[in-house]
Design a protein that fits this description.
single chain, mainly alpha
């Protein structure tokens, strides 16, 4: 259940960032009469038939600018800093010799015998 809620929230955030332009258009259409009467730059010149499109274009440009700033900020957060070290050089000046104290190893004497396997194991016979 938690995973489903988290997935839905992530989906909503991705969709809301993708459809910001759609939200601007919807707000324009809902408030079109108010925008034409009060906010349009060309309301004094009705012959231009602007109908608030100038206001809409300004809002869209502002949203795109805001999105570009957000992308630049995200890119700055992703800045990677790489550290480089000088290559390590190993030098062996002195020859190291090992002295082993070799002790005589006695011969291995197998004192364990297993006679039980010979009684059980019967090799297969060839049919010729």
């Amino acid at each position: 259940m938690r995973y489903r809620i988290v997935a839905i929230l992530l989906l909503i955030t991705v969709i809301s960032s993708s459809f910001s332009r759609l939200c601007i258009y919807a707000g324009f259409e809902f408030n079109k009469s108010y925008i034409v009467k009060e906010l349009c730059e060309n309301r004094s010149r009705p012959a231009m038939h602007c109908d608030g499109k100038c206001y809409l274009m300004k809002k869209i440009e502002a949203a795109e600018e805001k999105e570009k700033k957000r992308e630049l900020k995200d890119n700055l957060n992703r800045l990677e800093i790489s550290f480089f070290l000088d290559p390590f050089e190993a030098s062996f000046n002195k020859m190291v010799t090992l002295e082993l104290n070799i002790l005589p190893i006695p011969n291995y004497a197998c004192l364990y015998t297993n006679q039980h396997t010979h009684a059980i194991f019967i090799p297969p016979k060839q049919v010729a």
